[in-house]
Amino acid sequence: HARSGASGIDDGQELAVSPKGWASLRLRDGTLIQFSGNSRATFQADDAGVRIALTAGDVQADVRKQLAGRPLVIAGSRSQATVVGTR
């Protein structure tokens, strides 16, 4: 469903950004993740941390310190970034 303004995203739900749009996701710890137009990503959070699977588009992130053993992982088709501690 198309949304504008502030809204949430559930585990396993896909985020799809229109070609001329953008989206941002703020996690509970203050981490800010920004998606460019034409981005597609799936969000998953559990006891092992947060994982964002990026299947299209671009992402930028300002990541806060992560809890021990609970990294933030952003994974694309050709690369993966794992933030384990510091910003």
Core attributes:
87 residues, mainly beta, five-stranded mixed β-sheet, three-stranded antiparallel β-sheet, 8 strands
Class from helix and strand fractions: mainly beta
Residue stretches low in confidence (pLDDT < 50, at least 5 long) are none
Oligomer: single chain
| Gap from first CA to last CA | 33 Å
Give, in order, the helices and strands.
EEEEEEEE
How many DSSP-defined strands?
8
Number of helices: 0
Main beta-sheet annotation: 5 strands, mixed
β-sheet strand percentage: 35-45%
Over the alpha carbons, how many angstroms does the gyration radius reach? 12 Å
Estimate percent helicity: under 10%
Q: How would you characterize this protein structure?
A:
It contains no helices and eight strands. It has strands at 14-16, 23-26, 32-35, 40-46, 49-56, 59-62, 72-75, 80-83. The strands form two sheets. Strands 1-4-5-7-8 form a five-stranded mixed beta sheet, with no helix packed on it. Strands 2-3-6 form a three-stranded antiparallel beta sheet, with no helix packed on it. It is globular, with a radius of gyration of 12 Å.
Task: Please give a quick description of this structure.
By secondary structure, this protein is mostly beta strands. It has strands spanning 14-16, 23-26, 32-35, 40-46, 49-56, 59-62, 72-75, 80-83. The chain has a 5-stranded mixed beta sheet, with no helix packed on it. A 3-stranded antiparallel beta sheet has the order 2-3-6, with no helix packed on it.
